[in-house]
Amino acid sequence: MPVFVKKLLTWGSVAFLIYFVAFRPDGAAQMFKAIGAALMAMFQGLGDFLTTLMT
């Protein structure tokens, strides 16, 4: 992927994130909360797997 396209996509993503947080703070908070819950569930599952594997 050309460097220009990568920079354009990166800055576009940052601009969208700022816009989303500025104009839809409730939606942004819910989205980040859902992402955090999903990550916690994945790591909890990995921890349970490793615990079971060690015992």
From TrEMBL:
Domain of life: Bacteria
Residue intervals passing through the bilayer: 32-53
Keywords of the record: Membrane, Transmembrane, Transmembrane helix
Species: Micromonospora lupini str. Lupac 08
Protein name, entry field: Uncharacterized protein
